[in-house]
Amino acid sequence: MNHDKSQNNMTENKLEFFYYINYLRALAILMVVFTHLNGLSAYLRPADFQFWGQINDIITAGKHGVSLFFVVSAYTLCRSLFLRSQESHSRLKYFIRRYFRIAPAYYLILLIIFFSVGEAIPDNFYLSSTLSWQSLLMHFSFLNGLTPAHINNFLGVEWSVAAEFLFYLLLPAYFFFILRQRRLFQALTLILTYFAAVVLACWLYLNLKTLTQLGGSFHTILIVRWCYFFIGSHFHEFTLGVVAWFILDYWKFTFNQFFVKILFYLMPLIYIVAAYAEVEYWSGYYSGLIQIGFWGLYFLLLLITFNQRPPKLNRFFNKIGELSFSIYLVHFPIFYYFSQIFYFEGISEIKILNAAIFIVTTLSATVACSFFLYHIVERFGINCGQRLTEFFDK
């Protein structure tokens, strides 16, 4: 009887864990989606459409939603590594699960773009180019993140998939090295790693001019964007996810619930103020260094807050969190192609009506496609990975 009760508690804890993690994933993908939607629908709106301009700062800061993904991903990966560490072939199983978690859906979208379009999807920061077999192979091997020419030239968003996969490879050795240390050395290692990663990100940011000169025949914009997309510019965010796991799961720190409650309600206000400050005050050359440190720490604090005080269950956000990876893969190609239709043909002579129809149709198409991709392809890949890991238990 006690064993059954213990099992029920474990199941409830697991459901509660994925519930608030899905909330954070939903928040991250909504930030990214509305940032891209805002950029692509800009020319469909009247120039004097003041309402949108008033919230533009908040929407633009949504580009940092990817940083939230990185923090949450590192936290969940540490949790998985630790809980499964006593299994036989645990490292091999970890890599199998990670690969099949992202590869099938990712590969399918790459192939659709490659064979149906043949050209890269340009965004506001990238140059359109003809896709090649070499680039496709770089993406299939997740090595596109190492080269400026291939890092983000298929979907306009795949740079983060490459960074995520490279982190998958690095994490087990880093995680278990820290885990073997005493508590004081664990804390010191995490602090030193975080600051080293921040220094690397700052160095990449401050040496754009030098790196551009070294680029030779590459366009300046490619080097500049590569410095942002490269995993070295985001490793500090992954590190903060590892820090979160040690604080919450391993060291089991407890926080004053009154303080957590206040912080829970303050987080949206902090975001709004930071989003405004980023545009109005942090837009200078050296001010960019503030952004490197601030957003990762903000999302670490958000993760801790949600862990200590999970929001009430909402099926919509829970489902968006489940679909988040599929939404991430399909949203930008869909947004781009719909924007071309509305830009050249339009639906109405009234600009604001065109923008409204564009937003509704693209969001609807994105949700529909991501629903199919998740339930048919992504879940299939997850199940394949699970069955393959079970083979090693026989």
Please summarize what this structure is.
This protein has 14 helices and no strands. The protein is an all-alpha fold. The protein has one domain (2-391).
Structure description:
- With 394 residues, this protein is mostly helical.
- The chain has one domain.
- The protein contains 14 helices and no strands.
- Helix 3 packs across helix 12 (288-308), helix 4 packs antiparallel against helix 14 (351-391) and helix 8 (208-214) packs across helix 9.
- The chain is globular.
Counting DSSP H or I runs of 4 or more residues, the number of helices is 14
Reported for the largest beta sheet, the result is: none
Instruction: Report the structural category.
Output: mainly alpha
| Helicity, as a percent range | over 70%
Tally of separate domains: 1
Distance between the termini: 30 Å
What share of the residues does DSSP label as strand, in percent? under 5%
- Low-confidence segments, ≥5 residues, pLDDT <50? 1-12, 124-128
Report the radius of gyration as a whole number of Å.
22 Å
H-E order: HHHHHHHHHHHHHH
- The average pLDDT score comes to 83
How many strand units? 0
Task: Specify the overall morphology.
Answer: globular
